[in-house]
Amino acid sequence: MNTVLVGTQWGDEGKGKIIDILAKNFDYIVRYQGGNNAGHTVIVENQEFVFHLIPSGILYPGKMCCIGNGVVIDPEVFFEELTALKNKGIEFKNRLKVSLMAHVIFPYHRILDVLRETKRTNKIGTTGRGIGPCYSDKINRCGIRVVDLLNKDILKEKLLDNLKEKNEIFKKVYNHKGFSFDDIYSTYLSYGEKFREYACDVVSLLYDANKNRMPILFEGAQGTFLDIDFGTYPFVTSSNATSGGAPIGSGLALTKIDKIIGVAKAYTTRVGEGPFPTEFDKDFAQKIRGIGKEFGATTGRPRRCGWFDAVLVKTAVDINGINDLVITKLDVLDSLEKIKVCVGYEYKGKVFKTFPQDFEVLSNCQPVYKDFCGWQADTHKITKFSKLPKNAKNYLKIIEGLAGVRISLVSVGSKRKEMVKR
User: Fold this and answer.
1) What pTM, to 2 d.p., does this model score?
2) Cα angle at 232 between 11 and 268, to 5 degrees?
3) Which of 183, 332, 371, 374 could hold 292 in an S-S bridge, CB 3.0 to 4.6 Å?
4) What is the spatial distance between Cα 34 and Cα 119, in angstroms, rounded to a whole number?
5) CA pair distance 250, 102, nearest whole angstrom
6) Among residues 20, 40, 74, 148, which one is catalytic?
7) Which pLDDT score, from 0 to 100, does residue 128 have?
8) Beta strand pairing status for 40-44 and 47-51?
9) What is the pLDDT of residues 279-306, one digit of tens each?
10) What is the distance in angstroms between the CA of the first residue and the CA of the last residue of the chain?
């Protein structure tokens, strides 16, 4: 059964752990969008793995892992990740493939990302990894793809064209000296040689796998409300982080996807700028951030924290067509006496029960809460739903009712075994 796993909030929902748990039941694991501006943290037998580009299914021997055409790749980061895996004893020879059509991040993308942010009045909160500028080049039809790194003449032609335009922008708009063709060209030619081992026609690979009834798991980065179309624009990422991005970012047709699983944290977090209706006050945010270790896997930035937003998650369920929901970090709420759930947004006397796209409403609304009693008991060793404290089960059932979808798994810790199956 081909399955897509997506985040239902602003990313950081704990998808890495869930992908790691699900991956053992799939033959292929495919990353379909985003870049190294996101990360998945997986803990196996007290060893921590942080992934930015490589699918976390690589930890299972025999699994084929693919990076699809919808991903933008920073070669430096990609090969650093490979080295880190080798150093930890992970063998991936002949089971890691990169789409020839994936676009490549260059030094000018990273610098431009940072310089653009300095010019903005309303800061986006970019990670400065060059993701947005690389996607911009893709849409502007001047991007350079993995396949271009394998052909020295094509790379030379495209890079010269890019630098001719970009160096003018850097010098005249940003007072930056620009970039040397020779330096970038030689560096990326060497990356091209390294990519030869991994680059292939991922579309054909996936169609052959599907034809042979080999199940495929698609992993997205970020979350629904960082999606370029459906997120809290402009405080979003530059790709489609929703389930609709999976067929586009991999090449496997929409009709070949059988199931969509959503992941939601038992509360809400987001990194960077943008509206956040259920955000905690400073002191309580610091408390939950400490318990939940809420710091970005990629940047280390402290995550903003807030109560569970059912309006947000219900909208994500609808947009993605989610069949099953996974709740993570339930254990972080173990000590709380009272827990709130947002069921609507109030603005100028009107209560919104569905997610509004009006930036003014999102920025100034007041959340409408329902209060619930906490369970004040340790859940991290529980593996059966029936064994959860009564109030914890009630909290999960409330979320199910508001989201309109069944909860099938609940994570109560960072380790593989710390999972409640239903």
Assistant:
1) 0.94
2) 40
3) 332
4) 24
5) 10
6) 40
7) 84
8) antiparallel
9) 999 999 999 999 999 987 666 789 999 9
10) 19
Per-residue DSSP letters for 258-303?
A: -EEEEEEESSEEE-SSS--TTBPPHHHHHHHHHHHT-B-TTT-PBP
Q: Residue 218 — φ and ψ, nearest 5°?
A: -100, 125
Percent of the chain with pLDDT over 70: 99
Helix H or strand E segment including 139: helix 131-139
Q: How far is CA 123 from CA 114, 120, 347, in A?
A: 11, 6, 24
Joined tokens for residue 71: 């991903």
User: Residue 134: CA atoms inside 13 Å, Cβ hemisphere, count?
Assistant: 29
Strand pairing of 259-265 and 324-328?
Answer: parallel
Residue type, 292: G
- Known active-site residue 378: no
Q: Are 259 and 1 in contact (CB under 8 A)?
A: yes
**Cα 33 from Cα 220, distance rounded (Å):** 6
Cβ distance 73 to 80 under 8 Å?
Answer: no
C-alpha span between 203 and 97 (Å, rounded): 11
Tokens (6 digits) for 47: 């060893």
Contacts of 138 (CB under 8 A, 6+ apart): 72, 103
**Annotated catalytic residue 52:** no
